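Quick start: what a row looks like.
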Amino acid sequence: MKVYELWDLSTGNMIACDNTFEQALESVRAYLDTGDPTYEEDLGLALADEDGVRTNLGQGRELAARAREKTSKITELDFSTLADAPVDAMPGVSSGDAELLRQHFGIRTIRDLARNKYVLWAQAIDGLSGVPKEPTGASEIPSRASFDWRHALLALERVPAKRDVPAG
């Protein structure tokens, strides 16, 4: 399996090991955000193959600039433009990830992802996960085994989209 290794070239220590290039760039950004701007001079990114052979993918300021490029493009957009941007405009989402989301769920934009019924279900489940199951008279809060997904979906579909909510 190929892995992306982020190295501190001044100490010879590996800082991070990631499975994708996008994850590796996210590691570079995270490392740069933790300290002195001169840290960028000390970074090196390599791709290590199954045999342990490493290929240099970048280092120093060039690597730092490459990692920041995607982030800086996003911060220049207003929210309505960003919502309609492809999902791979988000840090950590590769073009391959975006293609899989498109193929399997029909998700093309950040707005599509935010409004996807499976994402909404997951958010609802997470939100309800802290609600204790207590008797409420003759009936109880339904258990996971008896949870009616259709009912939950209908309830979620009645929730207005954020753009439809009047400003307070």
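That is the whole record. The chain has seven helices and six strands. Residues 162-168 have pLDDT under 50 and may be disordered.
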